[in-house]
Prior knowledge:
This protein is of the alpha+beta class. The chain is built from 2 helices and 12 strands, in the order αββαββββββββββ. Strands 1, 2, 3, 4, 9, 10, 11 and 12 form an 8-stranded antiparallel β-sheet that branches. The protein has a 4-stranded antiparallel β-sheet with strand order 7-6-5-8, with no helix packed on it.
Amino acid sequence: MSRRSKGLHFYKKRKKISPSVLKEIFSWFFLFVLAVLVAFVFSYSFGMKTSVIGSSMEPCLYNGQSVLINRFVYMASNPKRGDVVVFRPNGNENMHYYVKRIIGMPGEKITIQDGRILIDGYFYEEDDSFDMIEDGGIATSGILLGEDEYFVLGDNRNNSEDSRSANIGTVMESSIVGKAWFHMAGGPDGMGLIK
Length: 195
């Protein structure tokens, strides 16, 4: 007859990872990857900023005011009339970013006569906050936009270097970096969305 020793006995049991623990680990991993992806998309889309140079966009934007650029929006859709866009003239990487408002769309004829803008022969209706244009520049005789070209103006029409100037001219869609989306403090309105 064998004697059993009295006392404590420890048995090593292999612990198995339960399916619920695995599910929890994978859900945390998925959330982590999703957060990294969202952060990347957000920083790529909205992480770029520039500063407004000069008074050409007053009263919407002011000299020295920082602007966040939405680079994602034009991957999903085309620029629209009235959008405030950021671009480099003629795609020249050595020039600073320009911030202007789209007035003319691809395929349209833009003419400036008697201080007003005509699109395909019809007066472009604007509110009274914009001054009459004193100098139509190269648009005086009319500019026919190509299929990827936009005509842009500064909101401060008589103090802006824009598509009326021969050295800026029309803006190719490929030269547009993105939409001016949010302005930082610096103007009388402080921070806010750009309209």
